[in-house]
Write a structure and sequence with these properties.
Length: about 55
């Protein structure tokens, strides 16, 4: 399954160290999309610096 979208964000809208929650699940051989969690994020362990600073 492929999805493609284009958008832009302001700096205060970007959550550093977060990922979107999973929306797809496989139920009885069919994929189900949970649109209720579309805007939900969860924190993940992420360095507080850029990749360039880590190199």
């Amino acid at each position: 399954m492929t999805c493609q979208a284009r958008s832009s964000y302001l700096a205060d809208e970007v959550l550093w160290g977060h990922r979107f929650t999973p929306l797809l699940s496989l139920e009885e051989g069919f994929y189900e999309v949970d649109y209720g969690g579309f805007h939900h994020t969860v924190p993940v362990p992420t360095p507080a610096c850029s990749a360039r600073q880590l190199a």
